[in-house]
């Protein structure tokens, strides 16, 4: 490899191409500055491994895994942690700061390992000052990689080529007795772990199905079961998992891992749970069958099994800044969990152990860095605190801001300084920020019940550890956000499809609630507002437990609704939680035989049960339903007692509320317009059929199109004068509202003109003129009009005019069918019409059938029912009443084709009863 010399802190002059020219290397070892390794003095290289990583943030984690796996495969577990930390910093510099690919090379020797990290940005030189490296402050984001090299590596250096800048470091294996894998120093007795008697190590072997196959004597002593009582039983029957809240791996998964270490509980023969610390090792026997060997000790004796921490710098060699190096082991000593929650939970547990605290907590900052959200805690009521929010700037001064490290000797002297710890009994606390590239991403804190437990030294140790874990936390957080966003997009797409699939108001309300419960909230209530002058009305309530819906609905209906504020975003509504708390307090007082008190003023009409009070006792938020610049309702989401909403969930709920509001408003508009349309359409139909002595009349009407009650076809039967009745059946060209408008004109004009005493032809000629007067809105019309007069002999005399309409059919008692009129010109086409009327006499038992062309033109493929098909059906109707004739014709039309009718249909049947009673 061609290297560049950096003598005396000077930068080599670039050549004509702008690249640094190769020069002779100079060894500066021992000066605490840049120095190069003399390979002639190095041990013989016995193995090598190389990988290249893309300039993206996730490459840092991939590089750590590559180095860890490589060194563990070589058996260099003792130096894995230092190598991973240094590689992480150097690869971060390459892929994040330099923005180039990173080439990582691992070289193995008998006495150590050399790791080289090269980026492809040779112009980005290492900053020098005089003859020493300008390390800068350890709090700065850049330059810490070289500072760590100086603190942890046996030798290190930087080499330049025309195409690369290569930073390398060498780690030597520790000298220790042959056969020793890990070792710690000799310690005074007072510093040794405390055991309260003989230490028992339970050895339990589990087969591939999870059943116990071996159980040693110490296991029987610890848990009270003899071996024959538990052999063959699943370990899950005894394990209380998880003993530590927040762990993401279940015991079944833990038993399948090649190696696992952690805490849980074993339920003993006396029913009590014994906290244990366990080390699992996956093995296979000579037959190839896998099994898991579990070593278990009581949790407070975990030092027997737990992987030893590195010796503090004060006992061996101090690091460059004089701080202990154990934070590296604590936070990066084992592979990080895949999920964010597991990583955060393990972080707070190790932070608590590192500073010997009673509790610890980790908060993540919101995107705008104004608030911190509780994401993990130990030693605190985590269910109550999870996703709770506290401000970044909790008070004046540096100790009131989460952006700076802070140590509080006694919280009782400064109440509210750490809002998360209010009412928890914690007295002293140390908090440090988590920062990535200068941006606040979270806060890590450790607290103790005793005052004055922590000093600046502990704050520095915790800050040093927080700096190491910050990038991993941020990477996991971004991964979780990406998964949430993808899930949110999928959720919103599905929600939009569901909401767009209905225009029914009640169904829209039900969909809104069902999409939010339980995905976004435990319970949901939807308030609607009819108009600006109306109060919000509770329209829908849903809870994931159906037994609680009625109780919540009763409670909310007796409370004032939330204010319909149009401001976007979720706002907290405290009323349900307050009422629930007061109701629970009142119930408790009654159980003690007490009355009065702060809960006594609650109206006895509310009276929710304890289950209902607990269901609504958590955080409740209200999101306005705004559509077309008007608040049409509120979406209320709630959690059970002491639970909070995540910010991501609230943002998703806000997106859903916007879509739901538009869908709900569309359903409202559709319902209103449908009601108006139906009212107008009903006004176009006759109010009812008159009772005519001596004549049976029946009508069947079907309008084409969803939601239409009236189309282009119409009918009417009405009295003209004593003993004379008018009847009409017609078809306006087209369908829909425009045709319906001509329908209304024709039907009402017929009644008015007929009652003026005009003959049939005169009525139709004047109607023709009225249609033509409509101009561009006019449409041609086929119309069958007639006047009917029942006779004393039992027959009926009809005078009929058929203007372009399908001819009426007469069914005689002998089953013959014939046309009862002749065709004439239709209406609405020409001005001068010469129409005439024809007289038809219906004898007793005869039927006159009048239909529109939607009946005769019913199609199935290329076949059409037609006039002949209609006549064939009518021949089968001899002896039937008018209603039965109309029904049989309609059934025949519907059965002729499988598709829904595409045209309006009207059937008018009139029958003169026979001389004998039918």
Automatic annotation (TrEMBL):
GO terms for molecular function: phosphatase activity. The keyword Hydrolase applies. The keyword Hydrolase applies. Pfam families: GAF, GAF_3, HATPase_c_2, PAS, SpoIIE. GO terms for biological process: regulation of DNA-templated transcription. Keywords: Hydrolase. Residues 203-233 form the PAS domain. Residues 1-24 are annotated as: Disordered. PANTHER family: STAGE II SPORULATION PROTEIN E, STAGE II SPORULATION PROTEIN E-RELATED. This is PAS domain-containing protein. It comes from Streptomyces brasiliensis.
């Amino acid at each position: 490899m061609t290297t560049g010399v950096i003598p005396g802190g000077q930068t080599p002059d670039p050549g004509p191409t702008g690249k640094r020219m190769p020069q002779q290397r100079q060894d500066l070892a021992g000066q605490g500055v840049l120095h190069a390794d003399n390979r002639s003095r190095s041990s013989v290289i016995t193995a090598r491994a190389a990988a290249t990583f893309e300039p993206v943030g996730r490459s840092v984690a991939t590089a750590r895994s590559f180095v860890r796996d490589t060194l563990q495969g070589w058996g260099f577990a003792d130096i894995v942690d230092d190598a991973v930390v240094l590689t992480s910093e150097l690869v971060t510099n390459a892929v994040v700061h330099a923005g180039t690919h990173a080439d990582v090379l691992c070289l193995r020797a008998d006495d150590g390992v050399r790791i080289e990290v090269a980026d492809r940005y040779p112009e980005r030189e290492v900053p020098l000052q005089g003859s020493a490296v300008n390390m800068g402050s350890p709090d700065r984001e850049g330059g810490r990689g070289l500072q760590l090299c100086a603190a942890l590596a046996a030798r290190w250096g930087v080499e330049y080529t025309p195409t690369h800048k290569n930073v390398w470091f060498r780690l030597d294996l520790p000298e220790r007795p042959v056969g020793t894998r890990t070792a710690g120093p000799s310690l005074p007795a007072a510093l040794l772990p405390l055991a309260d008697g003989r230490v028992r190590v339970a050895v339990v072997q589990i087969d591939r199905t999870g059943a116990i196959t071996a159980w040693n004597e110490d296991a029987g002593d610890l848990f009270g079961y003899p071996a024959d009582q538990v052999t063959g039983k699943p370990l899950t029957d005894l394990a209380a998992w998880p003993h530590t809240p927040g762990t993401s791996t279940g015991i079944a998964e833990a038993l399948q891992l090649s190696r696992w270490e952690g805490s849980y509980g074993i339920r003993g023969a006396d029913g009590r749970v014994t906290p244990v610390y366990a080390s699992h090792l996956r093995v296979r026997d000579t037959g190839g069958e896998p099994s898991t060997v579990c070593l278990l000790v009581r949790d407070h004796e975990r030092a027997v099994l737990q992987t030893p921490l590195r010796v503090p710098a004060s006992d061996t060699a101090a690091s460059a800044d004089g701080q202990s190096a154990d934070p590296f082991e604590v936070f990066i000593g084992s592979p990080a969990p895949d999920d964010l929650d597991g990583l955060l939970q393990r972080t707070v547990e190790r932070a608590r152990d590192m500073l010997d605290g009673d509790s610890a907590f980790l908060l993540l900052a919101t995107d705008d860095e104004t608030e911190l959200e509780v994401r993990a805690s130990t030693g605190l009521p985590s269910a109550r605190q999870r996703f709770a929010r506290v401000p970044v700037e909790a008070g004046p001064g540096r100790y009131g801001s989460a952006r700076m490290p802070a140590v509080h000797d006694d919280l009782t002297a400064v109440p509210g300084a750490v809002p998360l710890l209010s009412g928890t009994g914690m007295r002293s606390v140390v908090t440090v920020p988590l920062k990535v590239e200068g941006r606040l991403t979270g806060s890590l804190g450790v607290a103790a019940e005793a005052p004055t437990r922590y000093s600046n030294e502990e704050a520095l140790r915790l800050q040093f550890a927080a700096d190491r874990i910050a990038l991993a936390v941020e990477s996991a957080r971004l991964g979780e956000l990406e998964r949430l966003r993808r899930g949110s997009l999928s959720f919103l797409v599905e929600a939009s499809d569901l909401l767009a699939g209905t225009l029914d108001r009640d169904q829209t309300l039900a969909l809104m609630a069902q999409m939010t419960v339980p995905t976004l909230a435990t319970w949901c209530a939807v308030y609607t507002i009819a108009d600006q002058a109306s109060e919000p009305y509770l329209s829908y309530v849903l809870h994931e437990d159906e037994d609680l819906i009625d109780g919540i609905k009763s409670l909310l209906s007796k409370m004032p609704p939330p204010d319909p504020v149009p401001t976007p975003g979720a706002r907290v509504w405290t009323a349900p939680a307050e009422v629930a708390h007061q109701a629970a307090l009142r119930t408790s007082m009654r159980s003690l035989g007490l009355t009065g008190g702060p809960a006594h003023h609650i109206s006895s009409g509310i009276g929710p049960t304890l289950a209902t009070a607990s269901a609504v006792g958590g955080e409740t938020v209200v999101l306005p339903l705004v559509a077309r610049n008007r608040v049409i309702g509120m979406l209320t989401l709630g959690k059970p007692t002491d639970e909070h909403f995540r910010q991501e969930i609230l943002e998703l709920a806000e997106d859903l509320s916007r879509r739901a509001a538009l869908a709900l408003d569309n359903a409202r508009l559709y319902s209103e317009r449908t009601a108006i349309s139906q009212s107008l359409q009903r006004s176009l139909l006759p109010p009812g059929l008159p009772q005519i002595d001596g004549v049976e009349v029946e009508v069947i009407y079907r309008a084409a199109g969803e939601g239409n009650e009236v189309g282009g076809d119409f009918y009417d039967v009405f009295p003209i004068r004593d003993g004379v009745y008018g009847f009409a059946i017609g078809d306006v060209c087209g369908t829909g509202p425009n045709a319906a408008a001509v329908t209304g004109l024709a039907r009402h004009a017929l009644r008015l003109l007929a009652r003026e005493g005009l003959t049939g032809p005169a009525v139709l000629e004047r109607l023709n003129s009225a249609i033509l007067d409509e101009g561009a809105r006019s449409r041609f019309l086929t119309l069958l009009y007639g006047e009917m007069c029942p006779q004393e002999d039992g027959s009926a005399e009809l005078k009929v005019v058929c203007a372009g309409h399908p001819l009426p059919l007469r069914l005689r008692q002998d089953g013959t069918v014939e046309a009862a009129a002749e065709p004439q010109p239709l209406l609405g086409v020409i001005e001068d019409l010469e129409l005439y009327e024809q007289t038809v006499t219906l004898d007793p038992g005869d039927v006159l059938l009048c239909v529109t062309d939607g009946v005769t033109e019913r199609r199935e493929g290329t076949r059409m029912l037609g006039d002949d098909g209609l006549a064939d059906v009518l021949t089968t109707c001899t002896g039937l009443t008018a209603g039965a004739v109309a029904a049989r014709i309609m059934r025949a039309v519907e059965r002729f084709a499988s598709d829904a009718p595409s045209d309006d249909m009207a059937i008018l049947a009139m029958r003169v009863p026979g001389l004998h009673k039918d």
